[in-house]
Amino acid sequence: MREYYHSELDEVVHQLVTMSDSVQIAVRDATTALLDANVSVAERVIAGDLRIDAMHDELEQRCFTLLARQAPVAGELRTIVAATQVVADIGRTGDLAKHIAEIARMRYPDHDVPEPLVDSFRRMSDVAQEMVGKAGRTLLDRNLEEAHELVDDDDEMDNLRSSQFRQIVSEEWSHGVDKAVEKAVDAALLGRYYERIADHAVAMGRRIIYIITGEAPEGDDWPTT
Q: What are phi and psi of 71, to 5 degrees?
């Protein structure tokens, strides 16, 4: 019976990794839609979020069923509880990718990101994708070293965000001429979306460390949400 239970737990973990892979693709495609003003890609990301939401609901229900089926012991309980939290983090990350795509669709056919910020947003997307992918790999491989690396990755994201904000509020900001304020607001909001994706990846890393060690890392670098 316990072997079957462990098999079910392993299946939940593999489905979580599949879900994180889908979100990683969504972040990539949302960025393509944003930087290339590609409305068809934006629509694909927005429509695809329904599939991610369905995966979220199914996995959450499986975790609840595993809790109810029989009393899990310490390691099993940690895995199930943390898995329900990871499901939520991945689902929220998918929502953030959808929000990016929605802005790309709303501003189409314009390129919403001013040229001086294009490279910065492209790098933000790369970092976000790598962090989501790393969190998924860490969950599958139970690699403590990679889980801890997520905090360092988040530092780069924070630096990119700070640099963008300094550009937006500087006196030299005038991109878009009559739409300068609109573009500044959009850039600030988009930067926040990418930053939140990174935060969720760090939170996932925290939960994965808890699964592996039974102890959650503490400190300001390890957000709980």
A: -70, 110
What does the pLDDT look like over 190-215, one tens digit per residue? 999 999 999 999 999 988 888 888 77
Helices (H), the chain: 2-36, 39-69, 74-107, 115-141, 144-169, 180-213
89-115, pLDDT tens digit by residue?
999 999 999 999 999 999 999 888 888
| Structure token pair of residue 26 | 């969504």
| CA gap 199, 183 in Å, rounded | 24
pTM of the model as a whole: 0.89
Q: What burial letters (b/e) apply to 82-109, b meaning 16+ CB within 10 Å?
A: bbbbbbbbbbbbbbbbbbbbbbbbebbe
Contacts of residue 15, defined as CB under 8 A and 6 or more positions apart, other chains included, come to 55, 58, 59, 62
Tokens 């969950």: give the residue: 139
Distance from C-alpha of 134 to C-alpha of 146, rounded to nearest angstrom: 7
Q: Are 186 and 110 in contact (CB under 8 A)?
A: no
